[in-house]
Amino acid sequence: MAWTWFHRLASPPYVYGVAGRLSPWFAWPAVLLILGGLYGGLVLAPPDYQQGDGFRIIYVHAPSAWMSLMVYTTMAGAAAIGLVWRMKVAHAAAAACAPIGASFTFAALVTGALWGEPMWGTYWQWDPRLTSELILFFLYLGYMGLRAGIEDPQRADRASALLAVVGVINVPIIHYSVTWWNSLHQAPSVMRLGKPSISLTMLLPLLAMLLGFTLLFIALLLVRLRAEVLLRERSSSWTREALLT
Amino acid sequence: MSHGDVEVAALTPPIVARSSATSALGAAALALERDLLLAFRHPSQLVQPLAFFAMVTLLFPLALSPEPARLREVAPGVLWTAALLASLLALEFLFRDDAHDGTLEQYALSGQSLTTLLFAKIAAHWVLTGVPLTLMAPLAALSLGASPSALPGIFAAVLIGSVTLSLIGSIGAALTLGIKRSGALLSLLTLPLALPVLIFGARATQLAMSGGPVVAPLELLGALAVLGTTLAPLAAAAAVRISLE
Questions:
Q1: B239 contacts A159? CB cut-off 8 A
Q2: Which of A101, A175, A149 is nearest to B172 (CA)?
Q3: Min Cα separation B181/chain A (Å)
Q4: Distance (Å) from the C-alpha of residue B11 to the closest C-alpha of chain A?
Q5: Which chain A residues contact residue B178 at CB under 8 A?
Q6: B99 CB neighbour count, 10 Å cutoff
Q7: ipTM of the complex
Q8: Based on the structure, what is the number of domains in chain B?
Q9: pLDDT tens-digit profile of A118-162?
Q10: Neighbours of A172 (CB within 10 A)
């Protein structure tokens, strides 16, 4: 059966085992890529002709900002799967995503503010991308708040999943309305079509960091998913066996 | 719940009993009629958000300065912030009583589309809160120094924007059903989603006051209202079902 792998993902013990076996395969490459990317970005890459060394914070800021959106999308995807197929593991995955995403968003906000100080002369500028990032942070807080507010775990799963789906529909609307509201920030320069407008020695570490952060997210997600599954299945017999062996 | 509610509930048409014979639209009309009737028996619920709106508008001249030029500059922001907060305050009444006395459960069991019935409830809520707000906003704008020629634009912006506010709010109100002391959570869930309305509404108001073309932001507000009408009742119905599980 072509769908067997999908059905097996609904089984908590199976997912617990698989997540445990897979997480090092994501964690180690993530560590190597991030270390390599940091070395390339902070040491090898030349200083920017305008921003000097100040631009180097992009190696943390841009991947964090990228992850903040990607984690939200992943969370909403897992939540939708949980809603449609009533799959408990998918809800657990969505729940595991939220604190990671909120942390990346927070990191993007802090690094953005730190970058703003030398570039704009102020830590906070109401620039559309920072503002959308702040709103995204509130979306994460709302998701976690709703989950924490509902006592019945299954209701909490389904209600917060619905909120994540509503949120993911709204994220682009919010983003574009905020952009429409004000655009001070420079246009995105990494993925411009044709030849990239930043030099290869600057770009390669950035790409390494992007990939490294993505793998780091997957590794963290797998670890948190295991914890989440254990917490939810704490009264069943397989958890005892899994923990004692 | 006061004694009066029970009497009114007894007087209002029993939707459930007639459901087999009523069309979807007929049931929606009955739900709308019931909500309006119940609300008119409790006029204080109608007046409170309006009084709140007026109070918030009053805060700004006191906090900033009574100088007309300065007030005129901040008027769009003041108006829309006050409108957003007032509509948030009114959301509490949207589902709370009906969840308490089991009406929502009866709606869900009635065999009629819950989405349609909730759409009727949201429409009633808009008539009871959005329309009075729309009538009040031009007055508030006048008090903040808008010229009479700006009033049609402001009226139209609040009229269209408040539709979306009621629709978006219904999702948050439905998701927080059954949570004790949900006020802060409700605002955390609803406000980020309502930001586009705030942005386009304030922009329309600003353009109306400076004599510019109001059409573009009004059209965007209209687009949001259409999107909200299409999707929000579906999401609210899903959320109500989750709260009843």
A1: yes
A2: A149
A3: 9
A4: 34
A5: 150, 155
A6: 18
A7: 0.83
A8: 1
A9: 877 888 877 778 888 999 999 999 999 999 999 888 999 999 999
A10: 11
